[in-house]
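Thought: the user asked what NitT/TauT family transport system substrate-binding protein looks like in 3D. I have the sequence; next I should run the structure tool and report back without guessing.
Action: structure_tool
Action Input:
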Amino acid sequence: MRRAWPALLLAFLTACSVASGATSNVVTLVVGYQSKTINTVTAGTLLRAQGYLEQRLSALGQRTGRTYRVEWQDYSTGAPITAQMVAGKIDIGSMGDFPLLINASRTQEFGDGRTSLISATGYNLRGALNMVVVPAGSSAGTLADLRGKRISASIGSAGHGTTVRALSAAGIDPDSDVQIINQDPAVGASALRAGAVDALGQFVAWPGQLVFAGRARLLYDGAALNLPTWHGVVVRQKYAAANPDAVQAFLQAQLDATAFLNAHPMEAAQKVAAATGLAPEVVYLYNGPDGLVTFDPTLRPDLISALQKDIPFLRSIGGVKGLDLSSFVDPGPLSRLSVPAVHRPSNAGEVWFAGASSTVAASSPDALLRLIRDSGKQVRAAYVDDTDTGTRWFADKSYWVSGNGLHPFDTESEARAYATAHPGSRVVDYPTALRLA
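Observation:
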C-alpha cells in the first residue's frame, strides 16, 4: 500500500490537472436582460429567441478551441441587474438610461466591479417611451388632477424620472403634492387595476399594454418633455479584459438581432410576443418600422448628452454619488464592427388587419380612417401619429379633433388644447372620426 500511494497520488493530481484544465477552457457569459422591456430586445428577448449569441460564440469557439456557455437571467427592471453586476454575477446587462447611470455610479465605487457602456439598443429622441397612465374610468384629465393622489413608479427608473419631471413642470411637488409608491412594473400594473393607486408612471411596454387591453388610458406622454430616452448595454470591465472576443461576439449578435428586427418587423414582434406574453399588437406599436423605438446600437452624441442631463435628477434622489461618465462610455468595441445605417420609413399610420402577415400603410390620418371604414375587414390594430409630438399610438385609443381635417392626439389634454387654439374645431371620439373621414 505504501508503494502504491505515490502512484495513486500522482494519478489523482494528474486527474485534477486535467479536470482543472477542462474547466478553465470553458468560458461562461452571464447575460442579464429585461424580457418585457421591449426596446432592449436586440440585446435580450429577441437575441435569445433567435439564438444569435450562441451561434456567434460557437463560431468563436471553433477558432479559439474554447467552449462558450451562455446563461440568461431575466429581470423586471435594471436595478437587480446592477446589483448582480456589482457582485460579479452578471457579465453583460441591458437597461434604461437612468439605471445605466446608477450602474456606472455603483460600480465605480469598486475597483474590480467597474462597468463600461458599449452599445445602445433602442431610443426615442423625444422621450415617448415613458408615460403616465390612469385607470380607464378615471376622471383625471391632466397631471394637475393627480394632486393628492398615489402614483406607482419604479424608483430610479426612466419612467420614474419622466413622472417626476412632468409633475414638476406642471407645478406639482412630487415630494409633497403626490405620493409616489416604489413598485416593480407588474406590481404597479396590478395595483392600478385594483384601484390601489391612481396612476402609473412607467417605461415600455407597460403603458401600451394596459391601454391596449382597455385597463388604462394615457394621461401624459413623455414626448412632451422632448428629452431623449433610451436603453443600452453594459459590460463588466474585468470580464471584457479577460474575454474581449466574447464581448465582440455579443455585439455582433446584437447587430444580427437588430438587422432581423428591422428587416422582419412583424415576425420579430410575433417572436417577442410569444416569449413575453405581451400582445403582438403592443410589441409592434413599439418595435415596428415606424414604431416608438428606433433600434440602433450606435452610442450617438445626443444620447450621451441626454445621460449628462439626467445626472442632476439622480443626484437629487440619491441615485448616484461620484460618477465619471467619460470613463464609463466606451464606443471602442462597437467601432470595430460594421454597423449599418438605420433607415426608417415614414407613413402617417398603419392598419393590421386580422389574418394579415403585414400592415397596410396610410398617407394621412384621414386616409387611415377611410381605409379602416371602407375595408369591411376586422382590424387587429391601427396605429397613427400624434399631431404634435409624432408619438405613434393606437388609433382607437386616440382623441380626434375634427376641423380642417381630422387630427389625432394620444392624450385628451393635447386634443382639447388644439381644439381651443383652432376655432371651429371640436374633439370627437373614434367612431365619429371614422364616420367623418
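Thought: the tool returned a structure. Summarizing for the user.
Final Answer: Structure for NitT/TauT family transport system substrate-binding protein predicted. The chain has three domains: 19-125+229-335, 130-225, 349-436. The two ends are 98 Å apart (CA to CA).
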